[in-house]
Amino acid sequence: GLLSRLQTAAPTVRTLSSSKPFSQNIPSCLWKLGRLNHVAIAVPDLEKAQSLYKDVLGAQVSETVALPEHGVYTVFVELGNTKLELLHPLGDKSPIASFLQKNKTGGMHHICIEVDDIKAAMTELKKKKIRILSEEPKIGAHGKPVIFLHPKDCHGVLVELEQA
User: Fold this and answer.
1) How far apart are CA 29 and CA 36, in angstroms?
2) What is the CATH architecture of 33-163?
């Protein structure tokens, strides 16, 4: 009757027929990639950008902090699961000034991903022919060591790695 039809109509569970676990395809590293820390946006008018996120969108927005070593002013917008970093040039030699010359209205500048061992990451990435834009990590906006990876080696994206 009905019970035998239901039993035969029950879906079967498929299993993967591979004898190798998925993790065997992932090379072992001495360091580990962590969470997305922030997405950085270059802005031509920092006050307008702060106002958009704070007054229009209702986000929690930090005070402006100058980072002379990086040639930028930074503001962080808290999003709960990550942050936006608003970047504005600090001086004419700022990398953000040259970015804004090419992108007058601003735009995404870089992404920042945390790593558990920045020195090990640098060593291994160099072996894998990924160019790092400085010889040594610099102290970033969060007071932690950071490095930047060349965008041409990262599919057109400037990637910042930050020590977690």
Assistant:
1) 19
2) Roll (3.10)
Phi, psi of 148 (to 5 degrees): -120, 140
**pLDDT of the residue at 29:** 76
- Please list, in sequence order, all residues whose beta carbon lies within 8 angstroms of the beta carbon of residue 64, skipping any fewer than 6 positions away: 46, 50, 73, 74, 75
Q: Are strands 107-115 and 138-139 parallel, antiparallel or unpaired?
A: unpaired
Q: Give the integer Cα–Cα distance in Å for 52 and 39.
A: 16
pLDDT tens-place string over residues 106-136: 999 999 999 999 999 999 999 999 999 999 9
Domain ranges of the chain: 33-163
**In angstroms, how far is CA 149 from the centroid of its own chain?**
11
